[in-house]
Amino acid sequence: MTKAGRFWTLRYIIINATYFAVYSGIHAYASVFLLEKGFSNTLIGITLALANILSVIFQPLVAGLIDKQGRLTNRNVSMASTALLLAGSILLLLIKNGIVVIFIIFALIYTVQMVYQPILTAMYFEYEAAGCHIYYGLARGLGSCGFAVVSVFTGMAIGRFGVNILMILDIIFLTIALIVLYFFKKPAVTAPVSSSDETEVAHNNLIVFTKTYPAFMLFVVAGVCFFFAHNAINDYMIQIITPLGGTEASMGTAVFIAALLELPTMALINKIMKKISVKNLLLISGTAFLIKTLLMLVAPNMAVVYISQAMQIFAYAVFIPAGAYFVNQTMAKFDQVKGQAYINCSITLGGVFSSFICGRLLDIRGPHFMLIVSLAVTTVGLVIAFVALKVLGKPSVKNT
């Protein structure tokens, strides 16, 4: 890697690491934070479901605006999102009680962070095309390491300092992120306009987009199924492990294992893709999601929970970078931010359904039955993914 490449990569690493450090506080510890504030499991489910619904609505809308190549750039939206997250975290730190107010603020910052995530990925491809060489796999993997380190630290810190430590850490990381983003300016490059650029149009209408990329959109449905189980496990980890003797500290360890193991796969994704196609990698990922959920279901103790979390190396760690490159290989230029948004929508829609359904299942039937349902949904997703990636054949290619 050249010196210039290291410089761009370092800054992109900081942006990713701080984003996912904050993701830990807002997402991984959502149940812990909201339970402490007086929320029931059902109300937690409603809060997270509402946030995910809003993010599914706004992700393609914001992506469509960015794809129009106007003043609303990936960097500008990233800065605005970070500033909103910072303001929300400060408010949650200052507000001592009031379920309604906490419900509104938490749902909003959860939404903003989900809307921001695909833009972070799209920003890499934008800067790479402008000659800013960034080692995406390494940066994204170290982002997961940021999540891992903060998660394990937070699990221990909550027991000592209380749940407000979540917001204090978020404020620190968001401040760092905002400063780095401010100076993360793409160099002014006047790119030659190709004939394909002149004829390309952005497919901002969902129906037209689906007709243009049918196999891709069917795979998005499969992704929803994968992340139904993924989000159920992440959002309700404390409820799952408590009957097995788990605590907030052991939850932090479980999250740490999963996140830390994402680094080697993501860092090596470019080399892996030279040997295994992106479509096959996505099918491997779906199979790993299935095995991870099965292990969590049959886990008799925390040791098996940790083994289940280790499947992250083949599940989430493969899905995220492979999904990003799948978009880049499949989408026309003016559709790529929307493509990243729809991949992320599979994550958030999975969160919508798991939050609505699993919060209620926990209150009525407990974590074991919730995991049975999650396993069934993941199995359906794997079948859909196979149909989308293999049966339907080669997806639409760029500039079609």
In short:
It contains 19 helices and no strands.
Topology:
Blueprint: H1 3-28, H2 30-36, H3 41-67, H4 74-94, H5 99-129, H6 136-161, H7 165-183, H8 195-199, H9 206-212, H10 214-235, H11 237-241, H12 248-260, H13 262-267, H14 269-275, H15 278-298, H16 302-310, H17 316-330, H18 336-364, H19 367-391
Helix pairs in contact: 1-5, 1-6, 1-7, 3-5, 3-18, 4-5, 4-7, 5-18, 6-12, 9-10, 10-15, 10-18, 10-19, 12-16, 15-16, 15-17, 15-19, 17-18, 18-19
Polypeptide structure, described:
By secondary structure, this protein is an all-alpha fold. It has helices at residues 3-28, 30-36, 41-67, 74-94, 99-129, 136-161, 165-183, 195-199, 206-212, 214-235, 237-241, 248-260, 262-267, 269-275, 278-298, 302-310, 316-330, 336-364, 367-391. The chain has a single domain (3-185, 201-391), classed as Up-down Bundle (Growth Hormone, Chain: A), CATH 1.20.1250. The protein contains 19 helices and no strands. Helix 17 (316-330) runs antiparallel to helix 18. The protein is globular and about 50 Å long.
